[in-house]
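Q: Joint fold for the lines below.
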Amino acid sequence: MDMVRAHVLCCGGTGCTSSGCEAIIKEMETQLAANGLEKEIKVIKTGCFGLCALGPVMIVYPEGCFYSRVQAEDVKEIVEEHLLKGRIVKRLLYKETIEEDKIKSLNEVDFYKKQKRIALRNCGVIDPENIDEYIAFDGYKALGKCLTELSPTDVIEEIKKSGLRGRGGGGFPTGLKWQFAAASQNEKKYVCCNADEGDPGAFMDRSILEGDPHAVIEAMAIAGYAIGADQGYVYIRAEYPIAVKRLQIAIDQAKEYGLLGKGIFGTDFNFDLEIRLGAGAFVCGEETALMTSIEGKRGEPRPRPPFPAVKGLWEKPTILNNVETYANIPQIINNGADWFGSMGTEKSKGTKVFALGGKINNTGLVEIPMGTTLREIVEEIGGGIPNGKKFKAAQTGGPSGGCIPAHLMDTPIDYDSLIAIGSMMGSGGLIVMDEDNCMVDIAKFFLEFTVDESCGKCTPCRIGTRRLLELLTKITEGKGTMEDIDKMEELCYSIKESSLCGLGQTAPNPVLSTLRYFRDEYEAHVRDKVCPAGVCKALSKYMIDPEKCKGCSLCARQCPVGAISGEVRSPFVIAQDKCIKCGACMSGCKFGAIYKK
Amino acid sequence: MVNLKINGIDVSVPEGYTVLQAAREAGIDIPTLCYLKDVSHTGSCRMCVVEIKGARALQAACVYPVAEGIEVLTHSARVKRARKATLELILSNHDRKCLTCVRNQNCELQALCDELGVEEIAYEGVRNEYEIDDLSPSIVRDNNKCVLCRRCVSVCKDVQTVGVIDTMERGFATKVGCAFDKPLAETACVNCGQCIAACPVGALREKDGTDLVWDAIEDEDKYVIVQTAPAVRAALGEEFGYPIGTPVTGKMAAALKRMGFDKAFDTDTGADLTIMEEGTELLDRLQNGGKLPLITSCSPGWIKFCEHNYPDFLDNLSSCKSPHQMFGAILKSYYAKKEGIDPKKMFVVSVMPCVAKKFESAREEMECDGLRDVDAVITTRELARMIKQSGIKFRELPDEEFDNPFERATGAGVIFGTTGGVTEAALRTLYELVEKKPLDKVEFAAVRGTEGIKEATVTLGGKDVRVAIAHGLGNARKLLDSIRSGEKNYEFIEIMACPGGCVTGGGQPICSAKTYMDIDVKAERAKALYTEDERLTIRKSHENPDVKKLYDEFLEKPGSHVSHELLHTHYKARPKY
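A: Joint structure:
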């Protein structure tokens, strides 16, 4: 590797790519060349830093300056001032990192302070398209150790001892899964990776593959060694082009270095890896549906048993783990099960990556030790709710999960605690809601998603979720009855009990958990015909306060449907039968005379 | 053996059993909808859910393998509630036009509603609405009635390996259809109608031909002749409450005469004729180095399958028309002339266990001198409906004979209706023609039975003739692939499109999934035919006096110019898409 004076690490994750990091990197290279610095300063496009809300972001080492919301026109200044003259561009520094006249280490800012990056260890640190950088950060050391020092049983024992549980949502003990597959006698076995991340708002798997693809490759090879498989498949959604590209580059490089293929590390262990692109069906995140899809068939789940460890892909013993689970494996092998087990809670070891979204200041990716409370995540790491609004609930587990209300904010985040309060870990989406969110509407949003994504194979999910959505819609339109609420609850339990796969079995969770904690909101919609948060259009009304209205006629002119009328200089009125509730009048009124009821 | 507890009772069943099977052996009836023995085991409808101690969600009994020590509850309150809810959901997306449905009173969904005590429609909401696909000459699909059990898909794709229907779209919009939403008629569907036999409801049915037949009967100008295939007699009784496997030949003949047909004949005569022609063709090919193996051509589903999927085997197909087509051609030529009837006024109706025969009779080749061999084909089910429409008390009918001439069917013709029957009939005749001595024993046990592919070797004139029999197109595919690859070689092959042969054809009375769990329908119906065969005095085609007379008076000899004109046909390769 070249000796350089400084490193500029630019985030090249999907978030920063969409906010323009490619142009910044290009400009950076142009400016460095213009100043003759191209040999002294190295620009590296890394994976995600986590603080997506501040993108595009970059870090300049050795100082560790964290520049946020960088624009292409800022680059010249960074190069000429910081890189050439050594003067830090203060205006671009992430505010949290400035402490009097010092720069705080990123690890000390609120967002990172409570994080513990294991799965995301290399994200934002190395160039994911360069295998040498991965190797320099102990990459493939774990695979080497497994192949040359440990027996397959040792590997499985180590993983079991670590207490690692599946990060895809189910939380099944990974070591146990491997043990079952290892015990299945068959000449052919498969190792699969679930990179079909489908929960709305979750993007940790994408970030890992974009930022540290070799970690997943290394882990899959270790898994292959442990269970006796020589072929692996990564099932990844086609909607993740950057991840697909970087993963393919990484696979090619690993093959070139002999880290995939035949006789790895001079042993007789062979392992090959291929990518399979998903076509965007959420159900293909379910393990049997994923395997059916890899087989080239319509992605639909099949009944279990037989479990994949016995009969999986092409009816051969197969293990399937998700990206984040794999990303933990090399670390466990390198640092030992005890090290991993020292983090987290009694039954949920290690860390978990969450994608923070919704009504929260620091949207982005965070990795926290299991057992961290929701309050810590929202208030400290996430920086609280914007605009001084009040926290109402957090949704975890995506469309399969549930809402956690404010009074349970101190619940430690781990598999079992979340289940106990009616939610679930899921793959790690965490959506924060404030007082402006209608919980019935939220339930409806998630249900619309599952209705859309149901594969249609089993009756309860195919028809049941649809009927559930119809009942919810009826309620949000103010046409519901109290019996509908009971009927809906009953239907939820039927769908949960009878559905064929995890999608259907968990689809009613958003409804059930909102019913559990926010039943009063449902009842307000039904009994009082009111949406307390003012979200449900059919139940809201725009009114003009005659006391405040000056009769300026602006609202009447702005109304797209001509629903407002009146005499100039006297109060205007809204014809409710014409109003489409777009809110244009209210946002335009200079006197605050228009309100929503 | 595996030991488990079902509803607190100790049960011991062989390994590999499902909970459904185990429960059934223990005398417990678990409701099912998508499950169909030997055909569909997807666990998708969720009607058969049971509680398995320790499992989080309810499990589908039809696919849950028994395991040592498991404890199952099949009718707990939790289970019953869940099943009923699922059934109510199905009903909420079903058109519920029971009164006008062809499957009224023979519908598994109706039966479930009764069994589970559904008394009201619990869920209102949008219902999918579909156009009915009735463009196929054989099969009508009404997706408004479809419950998405996918039994039709499984039988088409997995059993028959035809695979022209599958599920499309997803979620609530899921439907069964053909690629690119084409009508069935424009696909490589072979019209076997096994999908109809598999359908638990009225989403699939035969294209109805009864009106056409009634019109012909009412038409004073028309001379309407009906002929019935061998397999019809083995199953028609089921429509009138007889146990499966009860032959009702005599009552059927009596009914036909009372319905207004001018003549009622037995297609068995056509079958005997087929043996004479096909047997001669085989001998000719064996002796003169013709294309071998010779493959039978009685099954129109198989013929179309071959045309789409194995065009390289078209020259192996016997050029013989199928028995009812042969017989139709003879009726409109020989018989018409003999009786002085204008063949143009003759209307031949074939009652078949088959819906592919509807397609077959409409093939352009199936005519001679501008006269269609057969004018209408109805299935056993349609005949049963017509009998009911005639106010005939079927069970009280006397046993009568078919009309004269052609009333003397042979046992050989009768067994055509089951797998191996054509081969056995052919062997009875070929042996005696070649060896010039009577058979000691007319039964050929090796070609009987319900095994998917059967093989036998017989010696004819000092030469070994290797014979194979396949029933069900999946088995046909296996057999042909083994020949294509050079792994196997035969001189004679019998292929029937439907598993079991014609007795379980797509036009036969429909049995419920429960029936299939308890009874081997194809074996029972076959038994009816073998019993008939034993009962008959003439059991070899070449001994049929009517057929002999036919050759003497009209056709001269098998394979003659006249018989080629009337009794033989040709085939064409068809694209798969």
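Q: Anything notable?
A: Chain A has a mean pLDDT of 94. Chain A has five domains: 6-109, 131-340, 351-434, 439-528, 541-596.
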